[in-house]
Specification:
174 residues; mainly alpha; globular
Length: 174
């Protein structure tokens, strides 16, 4: 099973530290991201969303473990997940409970992994992934974000950060 092998590989590699001078053409994230996409596309009849999300969760864990300062990599994974879930839920279709749980885990991972909690607000597509959850789950994640900001005593000094935080709060209060 290629999916299981890829997930195992990403989990093992997430303990590895990328060299500071890693050339862009040797970038392991790009290689794994391309392999995840190829694996999803090769699946006859389309891969189940649950399996797609499992692959992306492993890719995100790898990304945050190996490239914690490369916010664009985590943002890429979030954007891809938001887009794929959006296709499945087009027209108001409900997300299968297991997929909703996995998506909740996916959007929660950056809240747990980033030492600087406000780094989450620098992921432009994270709110798109968050918006694919039910309102109750959105409120739960928004509450966790605000709680972590308050716990760490973080000062919000940039207008963009305040704006993003307010947008997330407003969306979850609908």
């Amino acid at each position: 099973d290629v999916k299981a092998l890829l997930i195992f590989l990403m989990e093992r590699l997430s303990q590895w530290a990328a060299p500071d001078d890693e050339p862009e053409e040797d970038n392991v994230f790009a290689l794994l991201s391309a392999q995840v996409s190829a694996t999803i596309q090769k699946e006859e009849g389309g891969m189940e969303l649950l399996h797609v999300l499992q692959l992306h969760k492993a890719l995100l864990a790898f990304t945050l473990g190996v490239y914690p300062t490369k916010l664009e990599y985590a943002d890429h994974v979030m954007g891809t997940c938001a887009q794929l879930v959006g296709k499945v839920t087009e027209g108001g279709a409900a997300l299968e409970p297991r997929c909703a749980s996995l998506l909740l885990e996916l959007v929660s991972v950056p809240l747990e992994k980033y030492a600087e909690i406000l780094d989450v607000l620098q992921l432009p597509r994270w709110p798109d992934a968050l918006a694919r959850l039910s309102l109750d789950k959105q409120r739960q994640v928004a509450g966790t974000l605000v709680e972590r900001v308050l716990q760490k005593g973080v000062k919000i000094t940039e207008v963009a950060q305040a704006d993003m935080l307010l947008k997330i709060g407003r969306a979850s209060c609908r």
